[in-house]
């Protein structure tokens, strides 16, 4: 930061005047992390004062001036700080002095070299945009008189008009009027909200500004931004008064576009019952497809922020919403409700005739969606409604695999009791047993074995025994050995993995047990490898293979099963020396304990 910027930041008007008279460059940006122009710094300082008076949280530093509020996060830019300051009477005089000395009123902060700083710098990228955003009417006038370009497009809000129209204050309309009078293009595109009308429509209580823009010729159907159009923006973030203004001005209630596809879906997602009723009364098509959730009913069925939209669902069903409509993120409304345990909505949808076996969406079907969160009550409801416990589809293949992947042991038991096929060939792992073995799900393995799971079934990692070894789950390996599984059938080439060394950590299929040696080299790991060949002689009892534990009695990072008798000790020693973990003299026989000891748990 330059001396002039520091003086401006501190409000030292006499020092600023002295420096200007001495011929300093008023547009110098300086260098380093605190680089800012003087005018930028002045604007930033004004913002501090405004935000503090509004009871926002302010963290002020030379570069990172972070203002965290429910409305926005503003940080550090070169034209941010002292232009709106009704409290600090020195801010406007300093700004006038800098402008008179030739400060560039249209200066935009350059890129900082990293994404976070760039975002902060460009939230309001120039002085006029910032002045509009904080509602400083005198400052807006001053900058316009100094030649600020009213239609410059840059930063988070795109234009000064859009920034001013997103202001949650009565000053929003005043700022908008000033900018429009100065020639602001009411339909200029850019920024988060696409245009000024969409930005103003997201602010509850901002109907006066909306009317000003419409009177100035704003296109009520202008496309762009997060919400696609002003009506959808108002349905998502605005209020009934703004909806009424837009509908009265001729907004198409079924206009498509944006995140939610249409205004009705936006209101349904937010659970705004009054707006839903207004839109339906205005002719909104309750079954229109589009947007993230496919249709309004699915959007309403999704539980948002731990709040059920039960009333919204009732309104939509009463208006004729198709309870089995397909599409969107969850495929159906029932799957959306099941995905987050929305009990009341699940009941409503089933009562309205929702198909329990409808396919599609992220989880494949409602039963899988409910199994993901493990909510027994909803699962029982779905099964009672005829859900097929073995229905295929989705990421994991079936509900049983989902329950295993999420370690819902009680649910695994319930699904098996309901007839889940323990040997179904599904999902990426090939079988439920292989998934349980790889996923460290010991209780699930026991349940599956008890239900007749085939330990010889071939899957992604070969047999379940190989999956358990690759996952480093040796208590499960012992469970398989106890059933009579032959260790010699293990389809893992330890020598091959060891030869790869540290590079194997990036290999998804590498055995976790071997990976750990190279991720975190340690003496116990080296000792374990050193004596691995001694643990498994050709005639050793493979059901009582000893484990290695650390010096304090805790289990070491890995426990090794080697399927081929001896391995190359010199190779291991060389690899561990390269990894910095080999200590020849540190081995302690007490580190080896029998697998039947208390240290056996995985």
Question: What can you see in these coordinates?
Answer:
With 602 residues, the chain is mainly alpha-helical. The longest helix has 16 residues, at 38-53. It is 44% helix and 2% strand. The radius of gyration is 33 Å and the shape is elongated. Among the domains are: 1-136, Serine Threonine Protein Phosphatase 5, Tetratricopeptide repeat, CATH 1.25.40.20; 150-251, Serine Threonine Protein Phosphatase 5, Tetratricopeptide repeat (Alpha Horseshoe), CATH 1.25.40.20; 494-600, no CATH class. A hairpin with a 6-residue loop joins strand 1 and strand 2. The strands form two sheets. It has a three-stranded antiparallel sheet with strand order 1-2-3, covered by helices on one side. It has a two-stranded antiparallel ribbon with strand order 4-5. Residues 47-90, 111-122, 493-569 and 579-602 have low confidence and may be disordered. The protein contains 32 helices and five strands. The protein has helices at residues 3-10, 13-21, 38-53, 91-100, 115-121, 127-133, 137-145, 160-165, 171-181, 196-201, 207-215, 230-237, 240-248, 263-270, 273-281, 296-301, 310-318, 333-339, 343-351, 366-373, 376-384, 399-405, 409-417, 432-438, 442-450, 464-470, 474-482, 494-500, 512-519, 523-530, 532-535, 569-579; strands spanning 57-59, 66-68, 73-74, 547-548, 592-593. One of its GO terms (biological process) is protein K6-linked ubiquitination. Keywords: ANK repeat, Repeat. GO terms for molecular function: ubiquitin-protein transferase activity. ANK repeats lie at residues 1-31, 123-155, 226-258, 259-291, 329-361, 398-427.
């Amino acid at each position: 930061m330059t001396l002039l910027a520091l003086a401006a930041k501190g409000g030292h008007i006499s020092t600023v005047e002295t420096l200007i008279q001495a011929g300093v460059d008023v547009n110098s940006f300086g260098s380093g992390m605190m680089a800012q122009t003087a005018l930028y710094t002045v604007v930033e300082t004004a913002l501090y004062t405004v935000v503090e008076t509004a009871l926002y949280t302010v963290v002020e530093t030379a570069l990172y001036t972070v203002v965290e509020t429910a409305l926005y996060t503003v940080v550090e830019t070169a034209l941010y700080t002292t232009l709106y300051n009704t409290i600090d009477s020195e801010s406007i005089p300093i700004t006038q002095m800098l402008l008179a000395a030739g400060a560039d009123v249209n200066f935009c902060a350059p890129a900082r070299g990293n994404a976070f700083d760039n975002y902060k710098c460009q939230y309001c990228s120039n002085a006029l945009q910032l002045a509009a955003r904080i509602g400083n009417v005198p400052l807006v006038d001053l900058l316009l008189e100094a030649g600020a370009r009213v239609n410059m497009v840059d930063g988070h809000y795109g234009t000064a008009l859009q920034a001013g129209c997103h202001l949650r204050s009565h000053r929003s309309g005043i700022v908008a009027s000033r900018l429009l009078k100065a020639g602001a293009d009411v339909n200029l595109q850019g920024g988060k909200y696409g245009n000024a009308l969409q930005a103003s429509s997201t602010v509850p209580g901002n109907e006066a500004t909306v009317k000003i823009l419409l009177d100035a010729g704003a296109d009520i159907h202008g496309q762009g931004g997060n919400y696609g159009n002003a009506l959808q923006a108002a349905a998502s973030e605005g209020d009934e008064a703004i909806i009424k203004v837009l509908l009265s001005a001729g907004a198409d209630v079924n206009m498509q576009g944006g995140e939610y596809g249409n205004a009705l879906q936006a209101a349904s997602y937010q659970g705004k019952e009054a707006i839903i009723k207004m839109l339906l009364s205005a002719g909104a098509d309750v079954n229109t497809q589009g947007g993230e959730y496919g249709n309004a009913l699915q959007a309403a069925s999704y539980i948002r922020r731990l709040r059920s939209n039960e009333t919204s669902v009732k309104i939509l069903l009463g208006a004729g919403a198709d309870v089995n409509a397909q599409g969107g993120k969850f495929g159906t409304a029932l799957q959306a409700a099941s995905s987050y345990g929305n009990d009341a909505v699940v009941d409503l949808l089933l009562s309205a005739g929702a198909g329990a076996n409808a396919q599609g969406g992220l989880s494949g079907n409602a039963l899988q969606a409910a199994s993901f969160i493990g909510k027994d009550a909803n699962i029982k409801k779905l099964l009672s409604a005829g859900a097929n416990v073995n229905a295929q589809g989705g990421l994991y293949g079936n509900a049983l695999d989902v329950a295993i992947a999420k370690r819902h042991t009680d649910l695994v038991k319930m699904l098996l009791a309901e007839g889940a096929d323990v040997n179904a060939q599904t999902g990426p792992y090939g079988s439920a047993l292989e998934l349980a073995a790889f996923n460290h799900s010991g209780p699930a393995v026991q349940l599956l074995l008890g239900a007749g799971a085939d330990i010889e079934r071939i899957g992604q990692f070969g047999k379940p025994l190989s999956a358990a070894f690759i996952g480093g789950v040796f208590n499960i390996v012992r469970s398989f050995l106890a059933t009579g599984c032959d260790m010699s059938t293990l389809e893992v080439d330890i020598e091959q993995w060891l030869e790869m060394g540290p590079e194997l950590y990036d290999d998804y299929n590498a055995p976790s047990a071997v990976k750990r040696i190279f991720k975190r080299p340690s003496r116990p790991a080296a000792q374990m490898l050193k004596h691995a060949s001694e643990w498994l002689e050709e005639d050793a009892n493979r059901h009582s293979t000893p484990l290695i534990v650390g010096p304090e009695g805790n289990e070491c990072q890995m426990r090794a099963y080697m399927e081929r008798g001896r391995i190359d000790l010199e190779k291991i020693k060389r690899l561990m020396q390269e990894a910095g973990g080999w200590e020849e003299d540190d081995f302690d026989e007490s580190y080896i304990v029998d697998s039947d000891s208390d240290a056996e748990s995985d």
